[in-house]
Design a protein that fits this description.
The complex is a heterodimer of chains A (166) and B (278). Chain A is mainly α and 166 residues long. Helices cover 69% and strands 0% of the residues of chain A. The longest helix of chain A is centred in the last third of the chain and has 23 residues. In chain A, 56% of the residues are buried. Classes of the chains: A mainly alpha (166), B alpha+beta (278). Chains A and B meet through helix 1, helix 3, helix 4, helix 5 and helix 6 of A and helix 1, helix 2 and helix 3 of B.
Chain lengths: 166, 278
């Protein structure tokens, strides 16, 4: 459930905006592999504000969605997104998620771990680890972290409360 | 201000996480035919609106570039057309003298590539055309620079290309001068991030010079002859003195390709039907 609806935007509106950015704005301006992953960003935002179990379930469904869109091997996306979402939700007790810089680092780390697990699920070898450090992949980590920081900053003045508690 | 959870993880959360991971791993080991059918149906139902949106976005990005390219191509075509008619007549006359039938023109269908921001994007590419537009399984897919791959799965409104970077990609190929025949495949155990291919099965007695262009041979009935694949970049390895494997730089950059053509190869189809039993 979300709290603070009187003062801020509801969570679903933020998620719809991120989905629009992912499926319309991103391909409208730059369709390359270094583009920010707004879907992963939405997943991390939800995960940081929900219980680990709910985050894992959300990650599983978002992962299935990405598997359907890039069907190299169904299950790889579901696995990687589930793990990343669970770790993000679990980790919120370790770090302080209200800080923009910390949020940026979490988004960057989440993107890197997702990419690494995705590649390892397809091919469990050292090559996959090397591919996680490919220029396009690193560029995507930076752009996703920056986009996440902008979203966090942009939402802050409106006092959007995105708590998502069962 | 966000409130950190007092108990970061309960037994129920752990069970949910373990269940999701187990289900994901199970999906990884289910045959591709089953999971592929699931992906097809997901794209044609739940994901259809967002894919429609993405197609509009991709078309918006490429429309201006396409107009400029079309104008440039038209200008070049006007110049080329002035000499082409005479050459076509001459070609027809020579074919008639040699008793060769005319080469059937290749029909094609254009499609937008719907890129996804995942590191696996490029091994398969999602296209915004499906059976409703005339796409079919096993159609060769090319870009302006050369071969992209083949249609692996197709639905009513979308299709999935198995590109040259996919581990299962194979194409019968030949050097441009027609002297050396081989099989093109992705680099085995190499770094796909480098985007290289292998030209395998070249007899030890044959030598392919660096920078030679490799094209499809037309054998196998999927790819028509003459589609450019890439350029030779030295010997990658030698197999026990009977085969050389060459490194090949593909012409098409899968990370940036925005628009592709799906070929309907009438010659290949006709050849297949001729071999069929009556």
């Amino acid at each position: 459930m979300t709290r603070g609806r009187k003062t801020g935007w509801p969570l679903w509106l933020v998620l719809v905006l991120l989905a629009l950015l992912h499926f319309y704005v991103r391909p409208r301006f730059y369709g390359g592999r270094g583009a920010p992953d707004f879907l992963l960003l939405a997943l991390l935002i939800v995960s940081l504000r929900s219980r680990p179990g709910v985050a894992a379930l959300t990650g599983f469904f978002i992962g299935l969605l990405t598997d359907a869109l890039t069907p190299v091997r169904i299950g790889a996306g579901a696995f990687s997104h589930t793990v990343v979402a669970y770790l993000a939700a679990w980790g919120r007790s370790v770090f302080f998620p209200d800080n923009v810089l910390v949020n940026g680092v979490v988004f960057a780390a989440g993107t890197f771990v997702r990419n690494l697990l995705l590649l390892l699920a397809l091919d469990f070898s050292g090559t996959s680890v090397l591919n996680a450090f490919a220029p396009n992949t690193l560029l995507q980590i930076v752009t996703t972290a920056l986009a996440g920081a902008v979203v966090t900053l942009g939402l802050r003045p409106t006092k959007v409360d995105l708590r998502f508690e069962p | 201000m966000y409130r950190a959870a007092a108990r970061p993880s309960s037994r129920r959360d752990t069970a949910l996480f373990a269940g999701c991971v187990a289900l994901s791993l199970l999906l990884l080991f289910i045959p591709t035919a089953w999971t592929g059918a699931f992906a097809d149906s997901a794209r044609e139902t739940a994901l259809r609106p967002v894919l429609w949106l993405q197609r509009r976005g991709a078309e918006g990005r490429t429309s201006r570039a396409r107009l400029e390219a079309a104008l440039a191509t038209r200008d070049s075509a006007v110049m080329a057309a002035s000499a082409a008619e005479a050459a076509a007549h001459e070609n027809e006359r020579l074919r008639a003298l040699l008793d060769l039938r005319s080469r059937a023109p290749l029909a094609f269908l254009t499609a937008e590539v719907l890129h996804q921001p995942l590191p696996t994007d490029g091994r398969t590419l999602l296209l915004g055309v499906g059976t409703g537009d005339g796409a079919a399984q096993f159609q060769p897919v090319i870009a302006a620079e050369g071969l992209v791959g083949v249609i692996g799965r197709v639905g009513p409104t979308t299709s999935v290309v198995t590109t040259w970077a996919h581990p299962e990609f194979r194409a019968s190929a030949v050097t441009e001068n027609g002297e050396v025949l081989g099989i093109v495949a992705p680099v085995a155990g190499g770094d796909p991030g480098l985007g290289l291919l292998e030209f395998r099965g070249v007899a030890y007695r044959d030598t392919v010079p660096d920078h030679s262009v490799v094209v499809t041979s037309g054998l196998g009935g999927v790819y028509p002859r003459g589609l450019p694949i890439g350029r030779i970049l030295g010997v990658r390895r030698e197999e026990l003195g009977w085969e050389r494997v060459y490194r090949l730089i593909p012409f098409v950059n899968l990370g940036v390709v925005g628009q592709v053509l799906l070929l309907h190869p009438p010659e290949a189809e006709a050849a297949l039907h001729r071999d069929s039993l009556p």
